[in-house]
Amino acid sequence: MINCALCGASDSQVVQLRDIFLWRSCQQQWLCAECESHFQWIGETHCSTCGRLTHQLKETLCADCCRWLENRQWQPHNYSLVTYNEGFKRWLIQLKGVGDIRVASYFSPQLQKIYQQYREAIWVPIPSSSHNLQTRGFNQTTVILAEAKIPYQELLIYPTETQKQALRTRQERLSRANPFEWNPNIVHQHIEEPIVLFDDVYTTGMTIYQAEQVLKQHQINVVQSITLAR
Ligand SMILES: [Zn+2]
Ligand SMILES: [Zn+2]
């Protein structure tokens, strides 16, 4: 007997088949067909810059991206796997809220595929605030990458206000509104590899924008951001 990690439904027939061939992945992350059907995968038609699902041609910019361009002269280079809908939120709550890291590997096959295109790049996970890190005990972005067997470097940190003050005396002053800082444990030498930012969700684009700003201050350009959901 095996239970869906999201809704708890069991399916003994699936076990009989999977038991034999896929015992390991079964134990880690089995989701029932019903829960899987709630994910909306983003296919060919999406906003050309932020990856949001559209029903138009790829070349079109969505309203969010038009605003970014107009207000900050910024364009994201984001790719997402699924739409940020109820089905995805449920998965995310299971991971972040419940702390059930079994579900962290759910998107591993798709991420591993993308990784093959960006093997040369340095993958940088978006850090969690220290408060979230403390309550949850893990940073979901690093857990998801580790599960997908994608190497990463934590170039960015999300310090507390006190840590931030201390860092500011040593580092270039960043905008007060930006929660991220360069990781002081990483000696900054000239980084030539392209950078891929990784986060669980792209909502307004602000997180990716702010992370990019910090890296830019270190003469590092982000070529791509990958998020599970948009
Ligand atoms: Zn289920
Ligand atoms: Zn867009």
Automatic annotation (TrEMBL):
InterPro entries: ComF/GntX_DNA_util-trans, PRTase-like, PRTase_dom. Belongs to the ComF/GntX family. This is Competence protein ComFC. It comes from Aerococcus suis. It comes from the Bacteria.
